[in-house]
Amino acid sequence: MAEFVGKILAAKNAQASEDFMVIARVEALIAGWGQEEALRRAHAYAEAGADAILIHSKSSTPDEIVNFAKAWDFSAPLVIVPTAYPMIA
Q: Which of 15, 49, 56, 58 is least surrounded by Cβ atoms within 10 Å, i.e. has the fewest?
């Protein structure tokens, strides 16, 4: 995680324009590490300056993502891959 935080910091330090965004992808749910670890990583990435957090899951239902979104308490927006959960409108 520290290495990825360093990459976010480097990207933000190199940012020359507000049009450039850093979207940090959190793999914790995919890896089976659970919501607590996913939130820990997402918080670290947002604190490092990520403009948005991309979270996804290999679950066939959106429950994991919905629970993560309910627990997300940072101002950085969340991004999900919409094709994974077409039932969410």
A: 58
Q: Is residue 89 part of a domain?
A: no
- Which run of H or of E encompasses 67? helix 63-71
Nearest one of 8, 3, 6 to 76, comparing CA atoms: 8
Contacts 24+ apart (CB under 8 A), 42-46: 42/72, 42/74, 43/74, 44/1, 44/5, 45/4, 45/5, 45/8, 46/74, 46/75, 46/76
pLDDT digits (tens, 9 = 90+) for 12-28: 999 999 899 999 999 99
The predicted pLDDT at position 29 comes to: 94
The number of C-alpha atoms within 13 Å of 36 and in the hemisphere containing its C-beta is: 0
**Number of structural domains in the chain:** 1
Judging by DSSP bridges, how do beta strands 52-55 and 78-79 pair with one another? parallel
